[in-house]
Amino acid sequence: MDRAELRIHLEHLDAAVPALRVSSPDRRHFLRAFAGMARVIEAKALSSNDSKFVERRIDEILAWHGNSPAK
User: Fold this and answer.
1) Element housing 25 (H / E)
2) Which domain holds residue 36?
3) What is the number of domains present in the chain?
4) What does the alpha-carbon distance between residue 61 and residue 15 come to, in Å, rounded to a whole number?
5) Cα–Cα dist 63/49, whole Å
């Protein structure tokens, strides 16, 4: 998947966070669900640079929504 497609999927992941938090109010469950969704996107990255881009963006999404990265 090229960078533009990765961005679209990451935007969808970002938009899904509020609903995901409502459906998974426990932080552990939320992070597990979020990580599962993020892994699907990470697996589509074609290069190591794209993988790093996806990882950075996932960390930004978590931080923006008040969560620390699940590492």
Assistant:
1) none
2) 3-64
3) 1
4) 9
5) 21
Q: Are 53 and 6 in contact (CB under 8 A)?
A: yes
Residue 68 one-letter amino acid: S
Q: Measured on CA atoms in the order 60, 66, 70, 71, is the torsion positive or negative? A: positive
Nearest to 51, CA basis, from 60, 41, 59, 61: 41
User: Is residue 39 domain-resident?
Assistant: yes
With respect to residue 70, please indicate whether it lies within any of the assigned structural domains: no
For 70, other C-beta atoms within 10 Å of its C-beta total 15
**Closest to 67 measured CA to CA, from 27, 29, 40, 35:** 27
pLDDT tens-digit readout, 12-70: 999 999 999 999 889 999 999 999 999 999 999 999 999 999 999 999 999 999 887 55
What is the rounded CA–CA span in Å between residue 62 and residue 7?
15
Does residue 69 belong to any structural domain of this protein? Answer: no
